Every structure is written in structure tokens, then in C-alpha cells.
Amino acid sequence: MARPFKDASYPGVSSRFKNGKLIYRYRAKGMPEIHLPGKPGDPEFEVVYEKATQGQHKNAVIIDLPGRALPKTFGHAARRLETTMEWLDFDEATQRKNARLIERFLSLKVDPAYPLTWRETPVEHLDADRLRAIIEGIFRTNRTVAKHMLVAIKKLVWVATDIEKWIKPQDDPSLSIRVRVPKSTRNPAWPIATRERFEERHPIGTAARTCYALGFWLGNRRGDIAALAWDDLLTEEIELFDGSLVLIEAFDFRQKKNRNRHGGREMFIPVVDKLAAALDPLDRSKGGTVLKNAYGRSFSEKSLTGMMQHWTRQAGIPAGYTLHGLRRTFGTYLAECNIQARAIMEAMGHSSMTVTDEYVREANKKRIAVDIARAINEREAKRDAMKRRANLRIVR
């Protein structure tokens, strides 16, 4: 004889003894009785129970409705996320990246032995242990992807906690999980010797040198370098903080990144002497973009990546030094010039101080190392001088 199962978290479940063994079943109105293996808390019990509550028992006919999702599931959270103003505020590249990661998570099976995926699973059924298992599985092969996956899942949980209130904030399974990724070694800053080698191989007036000069002395991304036009170059009289007036040339443009989000950050970058020298022989009469190929046409954003690889190879520079690396070089250069972090952030168009602070820390680390070496040398020089004076007294 069945008896009530007194646990509010498992509605529809009852239990009875059969052949001296306690067994569980699920039954809802209009549905046949479904046997639940194991006991509450067991993985196999939880999976079958979830499927039963969603009508996915063996006699049910499941109809896939594209674009639809079961209430309070991760699939539902994903659909809701795409309508939030926070999601719409992301640029297209960020949306695509997160959408790919979210789709990958939604397609994962909750248990390899069952067809149930996280798309059909209620958000409240994801606990910290299960989430950790998912992230650790990815972490073994690619820790960077694991970090991005965790961020993507956090967005779905955020919908459940802050937007829809399906679960309480303290029940967020991601609170205790952190993925630490070592500092990237990609796109390193160009050392002085590497820059000099490039300059020697590619003289002023060539597309290679123009691209290099724009990338380094403007410190902007490849999309901005490719799109930069002569119309963006203006001459303006500026009153400095000390009250003096100066007439300068400067590029005035909006960054391509986040242009759909908030119009792009507005940039005003004066043309320094070395950049002016690189631009001087170029033909401005035809207008258009500053950087042009041999046919007088603009470079596409993606083509600049391949061209910079070609140009560095021509100069005998090892692989890995990229156009984005020149942007890092500019940030490092400004920090080494003792420019304040806030000013570096404005000059590079960063939206936060995170990357800027890294440039300042690296520059300060070098300064500290030099100060230490100088102090050691001065101390040892004094010690040697004292020894020499002592020896002179002994000889006399």
C-alpha cells in the first residue's frame, strides 16, 4: 500500500514497501504511475523525477517547439536573458560569444545515461557540485574556455535570481566557484629592438610602416586603424591647463568597439612628431582611409592581421608580434613615461582601469627593480671605497 512521501520538495512522490524494500513512485493527474529508481538525492532518482514532472515518461509524446522552453528551466532563462537591457547593451561580438557558450551548456546532458539536457532542467536543480563538475571537465582541456563558460552560466543564473526570482541569491551555485587563468602571453608588447628591426625593413611611405605607426602611436585596435580616415584628422587650437594656447593636429573619431552599444568611445588623439613624419609623404588629396593597399583601396579589418604577419616575417621578426601587440606597446610606453593611469585609460579608450592598472604595475615593477639595483650598486661602491681608504692607511 502506498503511503504519502512527506517531502515538499518532491510533490507527487509517494513510497511503499515491496518485498521488504522501500520503493518510490511518481503520479500526477492524467498520467500513469512512474517508478523512481533509488532514493531521493540519488542521481538516477533525480533525473527520472525531473523527466516525470516535465511529462517525459516513456508513454508521453514529446513535441519539440522551436524557440519555446519549459518554465523556470535554463532554456527559459536563456530566452529571457536575450530580452534584458543588459544583454541588448552588449556589442554583437560579445552577444555571439556568450550565445555560443550558452548553447553549448544547454546542449550538455545532465547525466550521460539519459537524454535530458540542461535546456529542459529547472535552474534550481543545478547545485554547486554539478556546476563544478561541468567547469572542471572543460578546465582540463582549456581553462580559458572554462572561465568564459562559467561567466555565461552565471548570466543564466542571474536571470533566475535577480530578474525572475526563481531562486534566492544565496542559492546561486556559482558563488563558490572561481576559475583563475594565467596572464595571457598572446599579443606581447614589442621590445625596442623588434620595433627598430621593423622600421629598418619598412621605410616611411609604405603601407607596412603606416600601419605600424598608426598602431603604435595611436594605440588603437585594428578595426579603428583600418577605418581611420583623413576626414578624422583635424587641426585645432587647444588651451592647456597652464593657460597657454597650442595648435595641434589630432585624430578625432569614435572607436568601433561598442559602436552599436553606446555609439563607441569618442577619441581625441594628438599626432606626435614620429606619427606626423610617417604620415607626411602620404597622398591626402583623394581622401578616404589613411591606410591603403597597393591598389589604393582600404584594408579590411581582418586582412590587417594577416598582413602584419607577412610584414613582420619580412623583417625577420619571430611570430607572435601582432598589431594588437602594438596597442599593448603603446600602453606600456605611456606607463613607462610616468603618465597617470587615468590618462592612459583615456588615451587608449579603455572602459575600465583593469588593463590600464596592469600597464602601470608592470612599469612600476621595472622602476622598483632598477631602484633596487641602483641602491645595491651604490652601497657596494661605498663599501669598496671604504676598503680602499682603509688599505691606504695601513700602507702609510
Automatic annotation (TrEMBL):
Gene Ontology biological-process entries: DNA integration; DNA recombination
SUPFAM superfamilies named in the record: DNA breaking-rejoining enzymes
Domain of life: Bacteria
Keyword DNA-binding: yes
Gene Ontology molecular functions: DNA binding
Family recorded in the similarity comment: Belongs to the 'phage' integrase family.
Protein name: Site-specific integrase
Species per Swiss-Prot/TrEMBL record: Mesorhizobium neociceri
Source lineage: Bacteria, Pseudomonadati, Pseudomonadota, Alphaproteobacteria, Hyphomicrobiales
